[in-house]
Every structure is written in structure tokens, then in C-alpha cells.
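subagent[fold] <- orchestrator: predict structure for attached chain, return C-alpha cells only, no commentary.
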Amino acid sequence: MESIDPRSRVPVDSGLNSATVSDEAYLEALGYRGELSRVLGRFSSFALQYSTIGFSGALLVGFTIGLSQVGPASVWVWFVASGLQVVVAMCVAELCSAYPLAGGAYQIVSRLRGRSLGWQVGWWVQIAHVASVSSATIGITPFIMAWFGVDNLSHWELVGISAILIIASTVANLLGVRIVAWLNNLSVVAELSAAAVIVIGLAAAFLFNSKAHVNSVHYLFTTDGTVKGSVIMPLLFACLLSVYIVSAFDVSGTAGEETKDAARTVPRTAVAANATTWIIGTLVLLFLVLGIGNLGDVLGAGNPVGDILKSNAGQTVATLFTVLAVFALWVNAVILQLAGARVMWAQARDGRFPAARLFARLNREKIPYAGVILGGVIAIAVTLYSSLFAVLIAMLAITWAGAFTVLLVVGYRAHSRDQLPGRPYRLKHWRILYPVAIVWSLLFCVVLIYQDPLHVGLGTLGAVVIGLVLYYVFVPKKDAPVGLAAQEPERGSAAGSARDTLDPIS
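subagent[fold] -> orchestrator:
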């Protein structure tokens, strides 16, 4: 007799398989009816994940994170750490293939281990999304204002311009998925162009510009005096650049209900986007570090990447990269705000969010407008703490790493007990890959807290406590679906028939 998991509305060993039924039929089998617009194809799904990573923009504001810790050797730290992040991405992709639902990690953990833990994981992911939106707009504001000849921004000038950028992101999200997808596709072009500007620009300078500075390959294996004492903790903390950039693994999964053939498309494009960033990022960092003239000057520069490009390839190349990177990082904020709103909407649809009926509503463009607006308001509020920019990056990294650690543990447990539904994307060596991903993610959480226990440690603890209070005080404890999920599917429909077959408890 089948074992039925009361938390998920589907039998854990029912033979449910996302590879054998249509998107809408599978959605029905999981207890929902399609409410969002399923308009994203393969390239848009890839672009969604790639734009979320936002390598060039993140490099613009975070290039010195690893460089300041271990100098030129940070290239190899990036290579190893980003490779481990891709392993995490592969594991998360498999779980998203099993449950291609809006809400991503929230849905997966809720169905495998219960709503309480799933809600907390969703909360941590939302904290990471909000912190990412704030850090992105704060990071690009000085570059934008520099184009208008305004330097040395005051705190309130920084907050004000960042707020305008967040409002623009909010408006873009409210206009509809197609608009966001269009911006997203442009962002991918900008990302790839920015990488090409660095690699081609510096390669040409190294070959044809006699005034260009080119370090030897040996330079890549030195710390150039940045490490005093043990190198172990600096090496580990230098991994922050990789964890900051190669992250948000379930964003394309969160848009699963808006993606065509989601169970196949989402995992493949997510892994492809992260692997592409790993390869291109390594190449870009190699060229940048080889072009460093004086490490001290680069570490103290307001635009270190721009300075390296300017000194070797000229001002035009430096400006072109900066423009492309700024645009890409703003779109990164747009996508992360969209993802955060989908998590809120998914929780509200289940009746598991304060003011659930409001946050479960969609506008004419099928956008969860209340979540988009709330996310923008919170992101603006977070910019008030813009003086703690480095802490903000660490906070978003640890909330993502913590959420995915829980997700991976839950997924590995379900895998070991053969409780995952059938899915088209399967990992061949999951018994090795999942433990590696879990240990790596947990290790990085410990390293971040150890580096700054006051701000990062207490900040993370505060976020967890707020999530617990919200859930146990303000969130209804009984399942009370308020979206179309509360309605019974019409008997005789293709989706209804699929659910009758796959879900005997309906």
C-alpha cells in the first residue's frame, strides 16, 4: 500500500513523474491550477539564471573581495570555489526538476519535510533576494552618478538614487513577464559583451600596446604580500566572491510555473548558466590579474576593474565595460525582485503568508503585484544600512548558503529513501555530489560567521528569529489555500484526468 505524506497532498512513492505528463497536468497533480503565464522558453530560462548570477556587475563591485585576501592567487580560489558552487547547482537543479513550482526551495522542502521548515527556508531565500536587490542598486549608484560628474555621495544621496533604481525595478516587474524576459535577454547580451570587452581588450593590449603591463604566469601563484600569517582563513574567505556571484540556484526553478516544459528546461538551463559563469569568469579573472600593475593601487581604486582596463586598453574600453556591467547588475536586481515576489506568492497561495489573500492575487499581467511592491519597499528600507555594504554581501551569501544547505540535506535524505518523484533530470553520482555540496555549503556558513560574528553572526540570527516569529505568530497553521489551488479541477479535463490518475488522495 502506498505511503502518503500528509504535507504534500501526493503519495511519496506514487510514481508521479514530471517527465511523462504535460506542465499543466503535473501542476494539477501537485495540487495546483495554472495561474501564471507560461511564456518562458529555453533561452529565457537560461537568461533568467545567468542574469541572476550577474557576473560582470558583481565583478564591478566585488572584484577585490578575493584579491584583498590572497592577492593574485585568488584566481585559483575562484576556480575551485565556483566549481563547488556548480556542484550545488547540479543538486538543486535535480530537485527543481522533481518539483518545478513557483517558490523553488520553499516548495521542495515543504513537500519533503513539512511546511514549517519549508517556510523558514523560503524566508531565508527571500532575505537573500532583498539583500541582493539592495546591494546591487547601492553598488551601481556611485558609477552612475560618476557619469554625471558627481562623486563622494553622501549617505542620503546614495540611499535616494538607490531607491529610484529599486522603484524602476519594481515598475519593470509590474509590467509583466514578457517585459522582464526582454530585459533579461538584453542583460545576457550585456553580460557576454562585458566579458568579451575584458578578454579581447586586454588580449589586444598585451599583444600590441607596448605600454601595457603584463604579469608573468608565476604572478598568479603569489599573494603579493596580502597575507600576513596563516593563509587558511584568507583562502576560505576569498571564496566569498564565488558564493556571492555563483548563487541563487533555484531562481529559474521559482519561475517553473512560467517556463515551458519546466521539468526539463529549468534544470538544464540552470546548470548551463552556472557552468558558463564558472568558465567565463575564470578566463576574465585570469586576464584581469595578469594586467594588474600595482596591487595596492588596484585595491584602493573606486573602480578597480575599470582602472586595470584603462591603464592597459584605454578609457573607451574601461567605460564600455562599466556601462554594460551597470546595466547587467540593475537587471540582476529586477530578476531577484521577481524571484522574491514569486516565493511570497507561493506561500500566500498555500495560505501560509500574512495577509495571504492580498499576496496571492495577480494583476492583469499575471504578476503577484503585492509581493513585488513589498519586496521593493523592504529593499529600499535595507539601503538605509548601505554603510555596511560588505556585511550586506556576506548576509545575502550566508542566507542563500544556509537555505540551500537545508534544501540539500532534505533532498539527499529523500533521494536515499527513494521518495523523490520521477523527473527527467537525474544526477548519476548523487551519492557523492550531494554530500560534497552539503559539506561545502555548511563550511562556508561557518567561515562567514567566524569572520564577522558581531555583524554577520548576529544579523543572521536576527533574520532567523524574525522568520520564526512571523511564522508562529502571524502565519496561519492550517492549510487554507486562497488562490486557484483552492478550487477543484474540472472533471473530464486533461489536467483533471492526470491528477485523478497520479494523485489517489484527491
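orchestrator: received. Logging for downstream: Confidence is low (pLDDT under 50) at residues 1-14, 484-506. DSSP finds 22 helices and no strands in the chain.
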